[in-house]
Every structure is written in structure tokens, then in C-alpha cells.
Predict the structure.
Amino acid sequence: MIPRYLADFKKENLKIEKTDVAIIGAGLAGLFVGLQLKSSCNITIITKKKLTDSNTEQAQGGIAAAICEKDSPQLHFKDTINAGHGLCNIDVVNEVVNKGPKAIQALLYYGVPFDRQQGQLALTREGAHSRRRVLHASGDGTGRVIRETLTARIKERNNITLLEDTFIIDIYTVDGEAKGVFIYKDHGITLLLANYVVLASGGAGQLFKYTTNPEVATADGIAMAYRAKADIRDMEFVQFHPTALVLPKAPRFLISEAVRGEGAILVNHHGEAFMAKYHESKDLAPRDVVSRAMLEEMEKSNTEYLFLDVSHMTEENMERRFPTIYKTCREFGINVPKEMIPVAPAAHYFMGGVVVDKEGKTNIKGLLACGEVTSTGLHGANRLASNSLLEALVYGQNIADYINKNIEKELDNNIKINLPKFKYIFTGVIQPRSIRGEIQELMWKYAGLKRDQNGLTKLTNRLEQLTKELSMPKDVEDFETINMLQVSLLLAQGALIRTESRGGHFREDYPKADKRWKKHINFNIDKKIFYSEI
Ligand SMILES: Cc1cc2nc3c(=O)[nH]c(=O)nc-3n(C[C@H](O)[C@H](O)[C@H](O)COP(=O)(O)OP(=O)(O)OC[C@H]3O[C@@H](n4cnc5c(N)ncnc54)[C@H](O)[C@@H]3O)c2cc1C
């Protein structure tokens, strides 16, 4: 069993500090909350590596918002609901699409230089969007540009402390309320007491062998929230992006859907453009459809990749519109746009996560969450491209509004220090970090694009067995691997229980959606598994 806290906190070894709001994560969600909180708040934003290490930094395509005349929040609503395969929360979708234009205004106010065409904000189209509504910056450098702009604004604020290379092990709770975080840095542990803890720790792509996510995406936030008794749901819904670069020794670098939005097409090893066989929207069909079609084509030809044909673009066009992709392909010796790009699906985005209400509150008092770590109800069983950056902004604002309204009456300068009695439960002999590769292999094999009862049963059995054999964690890599194991198990259990196929969850033994499953599978460490309606 994995204990409530992953380390043995002894008061004599513990440094104790205090802040008003502790924000875990310096991606878009965490940075935006920090900026929107009032300047009388003392804020600490913590990130486990550098500011450049986040999913936000990698975001290429852009942010979806209905800002042009030919578009409307109603159309954006419709596209989001269609992509979500019956599991979206209608109120939440309404709220997010309607607040979209205002969220973009906030980024413009902070100085984000979105790309423009003839003075107007430039908009591109991505899969399953019925309109061009995706704003981008520096071509395919959207996430990096937003992060650079927001961190520059944060550094101008003297009420915000930014801590890099600082790992959060766990959320500190007293009588079921979040009261701070345990920080691990330079082999020492600090208890940072806080009136509010905002979890903005991003995604979990590293659970899988092949992923577009950076190394920091090890599901820490979901795991620590689960240990603190937060409700977690929809873990079985994983979006596999169809087009990640496949080359020996290259990371699975994302080739944005916007490239297909601008006319690129997928072809198989016979040079055949195959997507018309699978969906009327062809290459711009929803991501789960494209990814599974690719898998089928790869299985037929017994290959591990297909090709993205970008030859309709001129070199100048490609370099201007997709500078990062152009440069990366060239660095790896692919002579784009003349040569095709070898691509295959990779784990990309997690629709599930920590359950929050519309204000971003979890079921634990004092713990709020936003961004990819959450399950708000926006994405349902599959996320519409470019809706996640938007969600991070809208929920980031909602959290800031909530804290700004309540902090004075809820401010507690005498937080009780009631350290947990540590029960030594890691009694095994396996060093946690040594099983990281095995988890990733197993997850890819049994909980990847196609799943079935047999494989998922093998997976859960093996993960449960590994859980019992772990020895005491010694460093960040160990903590991360335990988090990966704990969250992989939730994902595998959810996938095993859901005997249907829907959105990002595909069961070969139950290939159709079943209306009895129009509900969420929830996990709570105390209440175990429970179901909730949409
Ligand atoms: C390659 C790629 C391209 C994408 N393109 C798009 C796109 O075009 N449009 C779109 O809408 N979405 C896109 N996404 C998804 C989107 O980028 C993310 O969903 C979004 O950026 C998440 O923001 P976030 O702030 O929640 O998390 P992140 O940006 O991932 O930030 C998480 C932060 O938490 C920190 N952290 C995690 N664990 C700990 C810990 N234990 N202790 C301390 N710090 C911790 C991390 O270091 C990081 O700073 C893309 C994702 C990827 C990977």
C-alpha cells in the first residue's frame, strides 16, 4: 500500500515557512492564477524544474475562442459537446466558451503578441472545429510565448515568489483541510503553510512509453490530491495525439494538428491518403478516430509509423507558419516540406483528473485546482483541440475570483502544525525509480489506444504487485515513480470497469458506446470507487 505521505516528516528536521497562497505548478494555469490574485496576497509559485519545463511551454496550435464575426460561443459549444461524446457538463462548457473572448483579452492586456494578419488576430482551424477560431503566437510557438510573457509580468510583482527546482511531495492537511505543502529541495524538506493550496501541476503523459509530454508530466498532482482524499474521475479517458514525430533517438515531438488544419495529409506506406475511408472529416476527424485509423493502417503494413505529407506548402510558408516544427524536422534530417514526416500516435492529454466545481474548489477545503490536472467537465470523454489552454485561463480566473473574495475572512495566521505520524509502509526491496520503464511499457501495451479485459487485468495485477514491493523513496525520481504507479493503477482500474468505448477510451471487446455508461467513474481513497451522473 502507498501511505498517506510519501516521506517521513520529523519536526526537528523540518523547516517551516508561511505564505498566503501556495501554487503548485508554473504552467499557464499556475501563472495565470498568480497574476489574477490581488496584490495584497503573498503568493508562492513552485515548479519542480525550470520555468520552461511544462506542457504549456510545448503548446503549438494555440487557444480556441469564438472571437471572429463568423463564429459564436454557440458554435464553439456545439463543437466541444460533439468532441466530448456525451460526457461534457453542459453548464461548464457554456461557461468556458462564453468566457473565452474575455480570457483572450486578459492575455492581450498582459502583452501576449498573438499573430496577426492585416492587423486582425490570425485564426487557424484544428480538428473537429467548425470554424477558424484558434489564436496562435510566433507560428507554432504559442505556449512558449504565453509563458514568457506571463513570467515577465510575474517578475514585476513583488508579492509573488517563484521557486524553480523545487519539488512538492504532498499536500499538508489538518482535519481534512489543506493547510500547505511539503517541499523537497536539496535533500531537505520544508513545510510551507498556506491558507489556500492551488494545484496546477499539469498532466501525466509520462505514464506511457510514447508521449508528447515533457519529463515533468508524471501525474504528481493527481497522486498527491488522491492521497489527500480528493475525488478523482474519468481517468480512463486519454487523448492520443495522431501525429508525433517518429525517429530513432528523437523524442516524440508533436507535429501540431494545425499542420493538418493548413492542408497536410496522412498517407500510408503505399502513398495512399487513407483517412477518407475512416471519417467524413478525413484528416481533421476527432483525434481518437484519426489515431485508431493510423493504428489500423500500421497494423496492416506491420510498421511503427506512417507519414504526414506537407508538400502542399512552400518552404517559405512552412518556415513562417510552423517555425519550430520546420526547424526540428530539419535538425533531424527531414527535408520538409519536400520530404514527408514519419509520425505515429502518442499519449498527449488526460481528460480526467481532480474533480472541481465551477469555482475550482475540490472536495477538500482550502484545495483548489485548475488546468490539465483537473476534471472540470469541459472535455467529457475527449478534448476538443486547443480547449485546454482556454480552460486553464477560465478556471484560473474563477479560482482567483474565489480567493480574492474570501481570503480576508478565511485568513488564518495561526495554522496548527499537527505533523502526521508516519507509518512505515514501504517494506519492499524494489527501488521505486527502477520500475519507471516497466510502468511505461505496460501502460502503452495494455492501456494505450486499444484495450481489453485480458490486458487490463494483467496490467492491474502487475501494478498492484509492484505497489507492494516498493522500498522507501529517496529522491525526486523515486517520488515521481510512485506517483506514476498510483495514478496508472487508477487509470487501469477505470479502463477495466468501463465496459464500452467512448472518446479517448477504446475497448476492443466492447467497441461501441453504451448509454448505461453515460456517467463518471470516481475514485476516492476512502470511499474507493463511486459513480456520478453528468
Ligand atoms: C506538445 C503539446 C502541445 C500542446 N498543444 C496545445 C495547444 O495547441 N492548445 C491547447 O489548448 N493545449 C495544448 N496542449 C495541452 C496544454 O499545453 C496543456 O493542457 C496546458 O498547457 C496545461 O497547463 P497547466 O498549467 O495545467 O500544466 P503545465 O503547463 O504542464 O504546468 C504544470 C506545472 O506543474 C509543475 N509540477 C508538476 N508536478 C510538480 C511537483 N510535484 N512539484 C512542483 N511542480 C510540479 C511542472 O513543473 C509545471 O511547471 C499541448 C500539450 C503538449 C504536450
User: Anything to note?
Assistant: The chain has three domains: 11-237+351-410, 242-346, 432-533. The CA atoms of residues 276 and 395 lie 37 Å apart. The chain has a mean pLDDT of 95. The longest helix spans residues 387-410.
